[in-house]
What does this fold into?
Amino acid sequence: MQKPDMKAAESFLANTARVLDRRRFDRLYHDGPAGPVRDAVAAYRNPDGGFGHALEPDLRCAVSQPAAAELALRILDEADAWDAGLAGGACDWLAANSPADGGAAFVLPGVDTGPHAPWWVVEDGVPASLIATGMIAGTLHARGFSHPWLDRATELMWSRIDGLASASGYEMFGVLRFLDHVPDRPRAEAAAAKAGKLLFDCDLVAIDPEASGEVHGPLDFAPEPGSVARRLFEPEVIDAHLDHLAAAQQDDGSWMFNWMDWSPGATADWRGFLTVAAIRVLRANGRL
It folds into this structure.
């Protein structure tokens, strides 16, 4: 059973990572205080209640974007540094910038005011996005948070999931995070069994841990033992991917991503973020 080198990871973070990710590490692995994580997230907040300023490393514009709000809320949740004021402000911003049918767009106009990865393109009509809506709604449900934006987003997600016949891997991230945390558990379990088949029917999951390129493995869809998608994978498959994740630690103590490397700043930010995220998954699965 492979385990990560925690000293190397901490050294990498101290030398290279954002303050935000160093605070995350301290909170998650040294039982540090929640306040510094909350304050580090708040540094990316705009006066409109949304988040920007490269909190999502591939979106380096200052203006508020749904993906940045999603990451802000997820970090606060995972670090148990939840702040109702920040969450409420983000939801107010989401409601003010919501598509006609509710939820959140993939990316909003204004993205071109700063550098960004080439896949951040505003869709015609700026429709609701499964990944953005599902990821945000899932986090808010995980926290038992109440807001009118979430009510509409939940209705939208159920409607989209009920009719889902195909999806991308990224869209399934939103679907499954929503189903992991939405309160109606019987409906969520039934929907997960149906939606989970799409991972295989649409060839979205790489069972081979050594698969190369921008692939998604079982741990991307079911990172924790309690994830609704975990039952789709045999225990030996999960073990193989945990071994591979631990072995993927670089010589400098970091973890690297498998998508396009387009910006030195984004690369540095992602490596810090993913180093904390990788260790978090390994710990959740008993590998620390």
Remarks:
- The chain has twelve helices and no strands.
- The domain at 6-284 is CATH 1.50.10.20 (Glycosyltransferase).
- The CA atoms of residues 58 and 119 lie 9 Å apart.
